[in-house]
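Lecture notes, structural biology module. Today: joint structure prediction for complexes of three components.
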Amino acid sequence: MCLAIPGRIVTIDGVDPMLRSGKVDFAGIQKRVNLSYVPEARVGDYVLVHVGFAISTVDESEAAQVFEYLKAMGDLTEIEEPPS
Amino acid sequence: MSTNETGFGCPLPIGRHSRVLLAHGGGGQLTSQLLEQLFIPAFRNDALAERHDGARLSMGGATVAFSTDSFVVRPLFFAGGDIGTLAVNGTVNDLAMCGARPQYLSCGFIIEEGLALEVLERVVDSMRLAAAAAVVALVTGDTKVVDRGKGDGLYINTAGIGLIEHGLVVAPSSVRAGDLIILSGDIGRHGMAVMAAREGLEFESAIESDCAPVAAPVLDLLDAGVEVHCLRDLTRGGLASALVEIAEASRLQLAIDETAVAVRDDVRGACEILGFDPMYVANEGRFIALVPETDADIAMRVLARHEVSRAAVLIGRVGAAPEGLVTLRSRIGATRVVDRLSGEQLPRIC
Amino acid sequence: MKFIDEYRDGDAAAGFARALARITTRPWTLMEVCGGQTHAIVKFGVDELLPKGVTLVHGPGCPVCVTPLELIEKALIIASRPEVTFCSFGDMLRVPGLSTDLLSVKAAGADVRIVYSPLDAVELARTLPDREVVFFAVGFETTAPANAMAVFQAARHQLANFSMLVSHVLVPPAMEALLSAEGSRVQGFLAAGHVCTVMGFTEYEPLAAKYKVPIVVTGFEPLDILQGVYMCVKQLEGGRAEVENQYARAVRRQGNVPAQQLVRQMFEVVPRKWRGVGEIPASGLGLRAEYRRFDAEVRFDLENTHADEPPECLSGLIMQGRMKPHECPAFGTSCTPEHPLGATMVSSEGACAAYYRYRRVRVDTVSTGN
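The predicted structure, tokenised, for the full assembly:
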């Protein structure tokens, strides 16, 4: 349910979509991961891995939104706070 | 809360277990229970009461340190070492943690019938090299062979003696509020290197065990006149367990800053995949030193001179209260208590 | 580590904390559903950064904790059989049954093995044809695709010696049970990010509308949780009750379609008993008839074995968010990780274990050294 870790796809093997697997790199560690559920993923993409399966690709543009959201709140503050 | 028939709510003399579990050897809560409830009461004496890595003893005018350690690692060979290197360095380091110069080791082999002689030869050769590097002599030993199926290949016990050539009592009882806590390097390598070699949890990695003797930097600290209050090497149970043991034995508070503790990227990757906390992962070539604040600078300079402690860092400070607790200031600025683990860390999905 | 470390940044965390304090005008009670989120909250101390009025209660988001006693008993029976090689995720090994647990059974000589992936169990079945290999298939929707693939591959390889003991549970029915219960004080939810990675979040839209609660799909790092809380409180302050997606880097509205397809192929929705909560209709997954030969309950003739939950453990109330771990009289006294009364104390994801391991102490006057 919970523990899914992002890693970068290094190699992809297997033509059969149900046996599609590859090596995923996690900060220098590599593990063989089943890629059947991310047919759109390519070498170099980041995927979330749970119990040896990639369950999703990581969307890099969305990844940044947490910080853009924060920055946007910061900008609002500047307007809202009374001048000190 | 009422007790129920199964006895969960009723504390038995040694936990609720009638059989020994793997966790009893894990260095965490259950090991501590076994020590406190069985071994220490049975053999009651001052040296044991110190609860340190080795015993500090007076013999014929000299002060010696005496320690023992057993090695049951599986697999026998892993990146960065083998059971032989562990067997020598483990006891050498326990002696060093008493502030002693390790000198002589004994070695007992328990060999499973059927072990390839070539394997034994490799292990013994590793021990020869490790002993030379640690400047110790293996002077006595014993060999036993057990029936096939009863020994995991090979178990080794080593015991060692060393001379304490200074007047300091290097033990938890010497720790004082205001002392600084130094960690000799990055953590988690050994445990994850062994994990990487274990069947069923394989991953390709370049993580090597950090197994190494640490007597040289320790003796250097003492020679330099650093008033070393306490030392502890980080073995099973990791950095967290070592800190908790010292906090409890000294009845002081150890406050640690999480951002100061270094973990190599690949060790972190391996920990994240399996859901392990690096603070609890075994090391075999790392120690913590508790020194007065005034000696911290010299201590850091001395440690930097040795390869094995080149990356030493200050990770925290000793306080007076809350007594016996280790607190950690997290990356995001909140503070929590660090406790012993209640069993072995197991790979998790959640 | 990329996509992890950035979300543990202290300054950004403080920024979210300040923003949250600015918008909070009333007390709010939110529930985070996933045990992994509970773990992160307590480990990093995220709740320390929340304004006084915002309370996080912990939900039944630990599949290990909610596995009914009956199923643990079945696992123990199967694992004790001499011909069985019993494979499980590490989480399940310490969960107490009526009188023992898998770890103790292993100590007594049973062949119990920890595996990282269900496919490891399938591989064991292939390489050990003389053993009956049984895999303990526990989990929420996040793990279902992996377990589905295990059955798929076992069928493909025509393995006669592989079976699964299935204890899959579904989140939305559990949330509905919580929301419709008397005395529910939960006003907003942080939905489980990895469950939604697989399932998407369309299932939560009717819940949000019917019970008028905001539901924010949230990730697992401190910044994710802080942003999730912020988005939830912002909705509550503004009188809105919608489903929003904080964890957009991993979660899409429709979820992972190929994964859902294979799960539907191998499994069907069934009623399930939740430890500490009781039976919830249509809240679990079971193997479909055509794959029933891989069902360990059938193979070992345990379908009619039953066991009742002991009444003493209050983990049910904790999992429903009606009590906090430290409010339970047994917490830390008769119930500790060494002798747990319930699974929430044993599982690394259990709320009680998280509180016990990472419990906080007043450290106001003591210097933290750096």
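Point to remember: The first strand of chain A starts at residue 5 and ends at 13.
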